[in-house]
Design a protein that fits this description.
mainly alpha, two-stranded antiparallel ribbon, 5 helices, 68% helix, flat
Length: 132
Amino acid sequence: MSPGVREESPPPRRRVTARQAQRVSSPTVAIRKSADTESPTSDIGAIYLRTLFRAQLRLAIVCCVGFALTVATAAVIIATVPTLHETYVGGVPWSWVLQAYGMYPIVALFAALYVRAATRNEKSYRLLEESG
């Protein structure tokens, strides 16, 4: 260091944290807290909501397993058919083209089926909730 220049120490570090929001343990607790506790319909609403959650989870699992099986089957078929490896499209083997672009329609189909079924589940939940 040159004479006459003092070295200043850096300011002390401070830990900055955000306030923790109060969390609700589960969505059914939120329904029970928001609904009238004396009313028997609050428990029915919680049951309907749990039923919707289970139906949506079951739908997601079925779609994921079905999608995985479909893609695995397509990959096995592409791998086992020798003419797909010998035929070329634009200098690229047909098997590569099927793997690269043939899976998109499968993804779109499963996405459309999932959205349609999830909407149907939610619609039936709303009908149950309105009638109950």
